[in-house]
């Protein structure tokens, strides 16, 4: 049954995309590890980590596209789920430091020693175990999304109001995580990580493994999103997006569908955050900043809302542009981002992927049936 | 409550107010199993609001709504009521614009509604035949794989009626099915609804008098939120108060 569902939900574009991800998952590590640094094709270590980071944003963008593109839920707070996943991973990495911290305290992370705490808070228990941390990577964002979604969708909060409260959610979490008393490192967050599963985070191999893992995660996340959106449940989601009350009058429990897709999406965002943290080496409350959530929504719009692949593409492009601007023209980044958003909304309303798909469709129609290319648009204009 | 056991829909003393304005005012209406009823009345009479009350979109301030003699609809929400077997066509045709005609019908087909069920669902041969039948009935077979947003206004109305049928409800509430249709489409729609009424209870709201005449069923006149007159179209149109309520506007 699973294979049947997989085959049904993937198309040619999917196979190209997955193939490409597989290729970079192998090629980038090979070019990094096997070629000597003098070689023109050698990929330096910092670039591996940077590209890994882009892939994590790609996975976050996928999760946003799943709720926004396919169910019309415009979340401006997905950065919160990403950051929670990141913190869960960060807590594991902190525990891995052991007594190699500045204060060489085997029981407590440095920042707790600094705050004169005498024992580990209960919510840090279990993070010594990688398995437990992985579970929390999915559970923490998932449970938050469940509670939040349950309240919001049951009271039928939709549209702009929902967007605003998701934004408030991430903002509130940012303020909370800034406080030292929360026990997550306050302002500085969690950093100075050493190992993951006993392997040094500084080693080339670890870096490449994390990179490949990110590529695989994007691929699996994509397949999951396809499974959902191409199923009949996906048809219901699109129905909710386009005519919510009609869907209710057909007997569908709209709030259940919204809740399901919102929770799945939050879990994906959490996984993205968890992969992000070991590659950038730090997680701090800044990741909860409302601007991050907005940036990823813009990335999805630029790449093409409701296309999944476009969302990943948009996230990679926007992150690359951000890296470039922060290096060369830091003051102009926000203007560039805003300008790009306006330009895409005006000239490519379906984003880059939407534009390419329309082009490709037109090309295929012309090729397969010359002279009948207009058939698809023959219906009366509405 | 003497009508209760035999009525498929029983509305008694329903009042709905919006900010003090009574959209429905002590409205009572009984629909027999298998009956088709036409409801007419001037704009703002409360016809759509009455459907909102039956389908759970609006809760009445007072009064009772019962389905099938025993089910209290005031306690249920839209999805529950739809699953009980009450289908509704909106005044403004509402179909899923970005899905094909066949998929619109598929979504409406009675059966799976839960999240997990729909996720694991795959098309069965029986569904396919049923969709083919429905397309035949609503005369959209040739547009099967078209996106719903490319349909004409009248075709959307029919698709929505087809979706109603796909739900296989016991009661169909049809709000202004021929608004915006050409004369020949209107005649077709009357034929379609009469066909449907052979094995369903149907309530049709419509302003188009020639259409209502074509239906040839008992007529209820609503005005200012309550029933003004009931009977054959000829008898109600001869009624002084009905003439006045239409002319008085
Ligand atoms: N949600 C609402 N809030 C406030 N007033 C409402 C609401 N819904 C309906 N009304 C008012 O209630 C009255 C009855 O409206 P309703 O839509 O039921 O009339 P109708 O008989 O369907 O009219 P039409 O023939 O124009 O469709 C109208 O005056 C309308 O303005
Ligand atoms: Mg109305």
Order of helices and strands of chain B: EEEHEEHEHHHHEHEHEEHH
How big is the Rg of chain B? 18 Å
Q: Please identify the structural class of chain B as seen in this structure.
A: alpha/beta
Most extensive interface, chain pair and sizes: A-B, 34 and 37 residues
Main pleated-sheet profile of chain A: 2 strands, antiparallel
CATH topology of chain B: Rossmann fold
Number of domains of chain A: 1
The helix-and-strand class of chain A reads mainly alpha
Number of strands of chain B: 10
Task: Tell me the number of structural domains of chain B.
Answer: 1
Specify the oligomeric state: heterodimer
**What are the segments of chain B in which pLDDT stays under 50 over at least 5 consecutive residues?**
none
Domain ABC transporter (chain B): 9-249
Keywords (chain B): ATP-binding, Nucleotide-binding, Transport
Pfam family, one (chain B): BCA_ABC_TP_C
InterPro entries (chain B): AAA+_ATPase, ABC_AA/LPS_Transport, ABC_transporter-like_ATP-bd, ABC_transptr_urea_ATP-bd_UrtD, BCA_ABC_TP_C, P-loop_NTPase
Description of the molecule:
The complex is a heterodimer of chains A (about 375) and B (about 250). With about 375 residues, chain A is mainly alpha-helical. Helix content of chain A is about 70%, strand content about 0%. Chain A is built from 15 helices and four strands. Chain A has helices at about 1-10, 10-35, 45-70, 80-95, 110-115, 130-155, 160-180, 205-230, 230-240, 245-250, 255-280, 290-305, 310-330, 335-345, 350-370; strands at about 190, 195, 200, 280-285. Chain A has a two-stranded antiparallel ribbon. A two-stranded antiparallel ribbon of chain A has the order 2-3. In chain A, a hairpin with a 2-residue loop joins strand 2 (about 195) and strand 3 (about 200). Chain A is globular and about 70 Å long. With about 250 residues, chain B is of the alpha/beta class. Chain B has a single domain (about 10-250), classed as P-loop containing nucleotide triphosphate hydrolases (Rossmann fold). Helix content of chain B is about 35%, strand content about 25%. Chain B is built from ten helices and ten strands. Chain B has helices at about 45-55, 80-85, 100-110, 115-120, 125-135, 155-165, 185-195, 210-215, 235-240, 240-245, and strands at about 10-20, 20-30, 35-40, 60-65, 70, 85-90, 170-175, 200-205, 220-225, 225-230. In chain B, the strands form two sheets. In chain B, strands 6-7-8-3-9-10 form a six-stranded mixed β-sheet, with helices on both faces. Chain B is globular. The model of chain B has no long low-confidence stretch (mean pLDDT about 90). The interface of A and B includes residues 252 and 382 of A. The structure holds adenosine-5'-triphosphate and magnesium ion. Chain B: Keywords: ATP-binding, Nucleotide-binding, Transport. Chain B: InterPro entries: AAA+_ATPase, ABC_AA/LPS_Transport, ABC_transporter-like_ATP-bd, ABC_transptr_urea_ATP-bd_UrtD, BCA_ABC_TP_C, P-loop_NTPase. Chain B: One of its GO terms (cellular component) is plasma membrane.
